[in-house]
Amino acid sequence: MTVKTIKTTPYPDQKPGTSGLRKRVAVYQQPNYVENYIQAIFDSLEGFEGKTLVIGGDGRYYNDVAIQKAIRIAAANGFGKVLVGQGGLLSTPAASNIIRHYEAFGGLVLSASHNPGGPQGDFGIKYNVSNGGPAPEKITDAVFARTKVIDSYKTVDTPDIDLGTIGTQSVEGMTVEVIDPVKDYAALMQSLFDFDAIRGLFASGFRMTYDAMHAVTGPYATAILEDMLGAPAGTVVNGTPSPSFGDGHPDPNLVYCKDMFDLLMTADGPDFGAASDGDGDRNLIIGKNRFVTPSDSLALLAANAHLAPGYSKGIAGIARSMPTSAAADRVAEKLGIEMHETPTGWKFFGNLLDAGRVTICGEESAGTGSDHVREKDGLWAVLLWLNILAVRKQGVDEIVQEHWRSYGRNYYTRHDYEEVDAATANQLMDDLRVKLPEMAGTAIGGKRVAYADDFTYHDPVDGSISAKQGVRIGFEDGSRIVLRLSGTGTVGATLRVYLERYEPADGRHDLDTQEALKPLIEIAEELAKIQSRTGRSGPSVIT
Ligand code: G6P
Ligand code: ZN
Q: 54: which strand partners?
């Protein structure tokens, strides 16, 4: 094997965010930008010689270029084998499963998740460790430090590797195995869920629509829902992955899936609607006449998980990110199991899952998952919902309302101010932080503040500490305001304001969410002066 060492100069901006390094495609297209980052990852790892690396992506624009570079750099650095999905495709949860199933050293996930694709869109690279989950901060910090001083990378000189045909080939002494991206994942789902019961549900006339948003879950959803579970052909829409996601925005929320939402609100529409994002780890769940918020979905899935064979023994515990509503906490309390509050980002669940302390995790940002992999998993959430619907023989709306009648309802919303000037956003947060120590005990907008802090996470498994994870202001009536800056944006800063209030089991569960949270929305504005500082008259997105 002839390894070439190529001189390079560092880029100052290769700091991994909440979920890997996400940048505009044009940024990634700069000379050696991909090479620097991948070499910096390998330089921050030890002991991978001769071991297996998994590589796959969501099929977005530039996936094909970056994947060839990645394979060459892996060969030059001494990996023994690369496992890659056919056509360069692997959904994020499937990549996590492949890493675990084949006991690989780690994996590279090429994705910018739900961000738009195409030449004007975003690209991303994320490194996952041997448990199948995103690298912890210890590694991502080391990678960033390395990117700042890197002066060379290693590669090999080969023609492009054929990723279209399943099978094994040798690239400069390293084995490259192209695998079916769907097979192992489908088998894993079959081991967790009662496929016979779900098949029976479809056979009885239950109708669903699943929007793959022209992204990576198309082949997975078609194979599992239509081929294995007998859902009628056409259940999966936008099922062919395209590099530009059909020029759409593959984020499964009520803005980009409005048509589906409208369809589910009609009398003769389907019974159930679902969607996943660009790389297949997020989910949207809509029942007939009922959108299920991600925070509620986490609570409902945790409360009903035992109805699926994979969780029939019950769950060990639940974890949620700090800004996610506390609906799941009430389920944990009732079940008498552990409940954990972590910073935003799936990587923080890894230790708890590995230690067996939690089984189900979720985030307000449309992510839910379990200990079956170490990523959130869109289709998993859809299948668990289907399993629950099949066993309970009730509709989504009925199940949600029953849940609120026994646990109460956490009214919850998130207001995003996107592409705000970064300096303005940072100043706003800094000014708020200064005020926090004096806030407890005072009254704002008629509500008394119980606590006000900037969330610090103490990982109970490895003792690591993550500070400055978001400003939280809790009130004596149990309601809460959280403000933080997004770690996944690629332009300017995105300010997220999370608002929540609890309505007891015997209270009113049919209020409009924005109305129910109006007093809190006003307090948030009073405290942070968001509109005057950002010059915006309101949030860019409300979820
Ligand atoms: C990605 C991560 C999630 C995170 C979400 C929002 O999807 O995988 O763990 O919750 O981004 O992060 P942000 O920092 O933009 O709020
Ligand atoms: Zn995603």
A: 83, 107
CA of 283 to the centre of ligand 1 (A): 13
List, in order of start, the domains of the chain with CATH numbers: 3-180 (3.40.120.10), 184-407 (3.40.120.10), 409-542 (3.30.310.50)
Residue 108, exposed/middle/buried by CB under 10 A (0-12, 13-18, 19+)?
buried
Q: What is the mean pLDDT of residues 150-175?
A: 96
Mean pLDDT computed over 220-231: 98
State the ipTM, two decimals: 0.95
- 44 an active-site residue? no
pLDDT at 18 over 90: no
d(CA 344, ligand 1 centre) in Å? 6
The pocket around ligand 1, CB under 6 angstroms, is made up of 18-19, 113, 321, 344-346, 363, 365, 367, 486-488, 496
Which ligand 1 atom lies nearest to the CA of residue 364? 10
Rounded distance, CA 503 to CA 477, Å? 10
Ligand 1 centroid to Cα of residue 363, in Å, is 8
